[in-house]
Amino acid sequence: MTTSIPSATAATSTAAATAVSEDGENGRSDETGETGEISQTSGAAETAGAAETSGAAETAAPARRTGRRRRGGLSPGKRLPASRLIGPVLFFALWAGASAAGQLDTNAIPAPWTVLRTAGQLWSDGTLSTDILTSLRRAGSGFALGLTAGVVLALTAGLSRVGEALIDGTVQLNRAIPTLGLIPLFILWLGIGETFKIAIIAIVVYIPIYLNLYSALSGIDHRFVELAEVQGLSKLRFIREIVIPGALPGFFVGLRLGVTGSWLGLVVLEQINATSGLGYMMFQAQNYGQTDVILVGLLIYGIFGLVSDSAVRLIERRVLSWRRTLNS
Amino acid sequence: MATHTEQLTSRPAPSATTAPAAPAVRLRGLTRSFDGRTVLDHVDLDLPAGQLTALLGHSGSGKSTLLRAIAGLDHEVVGSGELSAPDRVSVVFQDSRLLPWRRVLDNVLLGTDGKEAAERGRAALAEVGLAGRERAWPNELSGGEAQRAALARSLVREPELLLADEPFGALDALTRIKMHGLLRELWERHRPSVLLVTHDVDEAIVLADRVLVLDQGRIGLDLTIDRAHPRSYRDPLLGEYRERLLAALGVTEDHTGSEAHPDQEDHQ
């Protein structure tokens, strides 16, 4: 009579939890340990068995799906190499195929090779590179400014009650105003040059960064606060060793939204009010009916968006290597 | 009462090495209430230095409240009474409470400084059987291993008083038995005063030298368990203690082996 009922139920639930996570995360060889090996293996065998039959039948299904089936469990399974590129590649293949078959009106949607040739021409006569540089500079400075502002404001609001009282309501108010609606006002204030564009991008960027970092900072797990008290951490060490690292996942969510936001802001600004840059190039092309040039612009925006998002993801994976999420 | 050995000699005065040791924890008229409901009602209690005491009680009987009061974690609670506790207090919680973003050794070292502490951290991990896992991430550990790491974290601070709030409550039965052995072993080596809050009567009987039952905000029963260690779960003489404890908890005989109450969290 050593086992009490509560502990017995705890045992089974722990075992079940282990089984689920073990299935999903390969390379976790240790730790079956003390928590009920039997139920785990039987659970895995069951799902694996079911997967074998259905998985074999569906080999033609899209990659992620087969991956999931074969491994069993609820985790989507191991990621295929370069799986993110499969969708875009397929899209371009369709586009190229339809163009080659003459199914597309070349005035509305020029063939991919036409777009590439135009890009080559624009690059060799030098206009494309200057436009790209201008756009990059705008997005870059706006993003840097927004990132700094978002982080500083979130830290102030998240770590002090006075800061919270002063900042949080104000930012929420700012958030309620559509940022692009500020464009006319900012043009009047800052002139139609670079400053207002960078200011608008900075606002688009700082809001998601602030919101996510602030909520991560203020949503710190109460149990960890207690732990810090028990371990005798000073306020400073508590912030440095618990609050900040605990808020990093939230920060990265904001960062990715911010990066996307910087490109979004850029596209809009350069379409509405530009004298140079990719958006300007596209605006001019519209006047002359050059669809291929417009597509070149879109392509470059897309590539930049994809690259910058991947860069943030990469940093996130490095910094948050302790996390074993479904994406790992 | 325990006569203290090497681990205690480095300590400052009050925990003492002389025979009638000053109590490590002294409570007089400790009262705590939540929303007008009195959870602790004038509790008087002395915990002698170096004793392993278990505190039993129903869910909501105030066990955790008492532990949190001693740990100094109840800032926002209405209460009165006298309380004295040592400076170096460690707490082991029901969940291991390891910070997921720090490796195991860094978790064990939380709140400490310097090379010497790092050495103690390694030694503590070795003591709980986690040597070689220093660089693991907490979510690579099993439940039992995580709780061992939490024990190591509490040992590094060389506590005079170790408070354990249902530390094995979330573990499976087999792991739990292993952890009982480990806790007792660690206590024998380091001799801190231990207050083990639990709802498991058998756990209390097997581990503790003294078992308290908290009932309606007061110490309802104070039982010294005078049996040599290691104790067997099947020792018939322990059955007598079990009966008395279960009676004090208001559980009838046919419920032996487990508490007849839903396993709820104590009032925070």
From TrEMBL, chain B:
Gene3D superfamilies: P-loop containing nucleotide triphosphate hydrolases (3.40.50.300). Residues 12-22 have a biased composition (Low complexity). This is ABC transporter ATP-binding protein. Keywords: ATP-binding, Cell membrane, Membrane, Nucleotide-binding, Translocase, Transport. Residues 1-22 are annotated as: Disordered. The keyword Membrane applies. SMART domains: AAA (SM00382). GO terms for molecular function: ATP binding. It comes from the Bacteria. The keyword Transport applies. Residues 25-241 form the ABC transporter domain. Residues 1-10 have a biased composition (Polar residues).
